């Protein structure tokens, strides 16, 4: 329970980082505000999970909807902490917590702005690679070769299928995944994205030809399913 509470609090902080860094706003000193009326939030309005439910997902002052991503992130971050701290060894705990937390953070920036923010991506992944090397994680060179083959096909024939940010993310993940895991990750992520896309197309009357889905959340979910489960 303690791990879940800590994770939920950290998830709230991840939302702030993902929202503010891409638009060059401070995230360590500035107080949290309503994104609609800019009112500074009281401490009891920032209690992870509970505040969103009590406020019925609306601002207390302007009554506009609070993005559900805050609530979902707090729930997921709590789960990540609980899952990670229940790993059988300290090494696995650190690696699981670091990798999944970074994946969640990048998923948020992709959801908010449809980008992989370089100021977040490079420091976090350099840190991840450092951990992989410190703990002497095996490097799967066959996965790197497969990655470049897939990347070549996408660039030549499927330019709209994945953005360059998604490919860059996979470049950092591929060496630490077996060739089977990398293949399964791409299959799971693509399948989930297609299901969501078809679901949206069936439930809306609007034109969705220009619909852009953030793909990092699907890659992150695929990573969790094929590598950590």
Description:
This protein folds into two domains: 1-136, no CATH class; 138-229. It is mainly α. The chain is 65% helix and 0% strand. α1 crosses α3 (68-85), α1 packs parallel to α4 and α4 runs antiparallel to α5 (118-134). It has helices at residues 2-20, 50-54, 68-85, 90-113, 118-134, 141-157, 164-173, 179-203, 216-228. It is globular and about 55 Å long. Its EC number is 3.4.23.-.
List the uncertain runs. Answer: none
Give the strand content: under 5%
Oligomer: single chain
- Counting DSSP E segments of at least 2 residues, the number of strands comes to 0
Please report the distance between the alpha carbons of the first and last residues.
Answer: 21 Å
If you compute it from the alpha carbons, what radius of gyration comes out, rounded to the nearest whole angstrom? 19 Å
Residue share in helix:
55-70%
SSE arrangement, N to C: HHHHHHHHH
Q: Summarize the main sheet.
A: none
Total helical segments: 9
Mean pLDDT: 89
Number of domains: 2
Shape: globular
Which structural class matches the secondary elements? mainly alpha
């Amino acid at each position: 329970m303690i791990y879940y509470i800590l994770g939920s609090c950290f998830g709230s902080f991840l939302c702030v980082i993902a929202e503010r860094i891409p638009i060059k706003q401070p995230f360590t000193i500035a107080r949290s505000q309503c994104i609609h009326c800019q009112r500074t939030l009281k401490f009891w309005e920032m209690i992870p999970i509970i505040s969103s439910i009590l406020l019925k997902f609306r601002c207390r002052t302007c009554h506009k909807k609070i993005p559900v991503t805050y609530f979902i992130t707090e729930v997921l971050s709590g789960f990540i902490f609980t899952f990670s701290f229940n790993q059988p060894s300290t090494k696995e705990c650190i690696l699981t917590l670091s990798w999944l937390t970074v994946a969640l953070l990048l998923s948020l920036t992709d959801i908010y702005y449809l980008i992989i923010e370089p100021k977040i991506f490079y420091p976090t992944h350099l840190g991840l690679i450092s951990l992989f090397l410190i703990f002497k994680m095996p490097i799967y060179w066959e996965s790197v070769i497969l990655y470049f083959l897939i990347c070549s096909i996408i660039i030549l024939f499927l330019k709209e299928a994945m953005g360059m940010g998604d490919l860059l993310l996979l470049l950092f993940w591929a060496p630490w995944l077996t060739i089977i895991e990398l293949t399964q990750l791409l299959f799971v992520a693509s399948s989930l994205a297609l299901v969501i896309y078809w679901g949206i197309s069936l439930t809306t009357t609007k034109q969705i030809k220009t619909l852009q889905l953030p793909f990092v959340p699907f890659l992150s979910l695929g990573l969790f399913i094929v590598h950590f489960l």
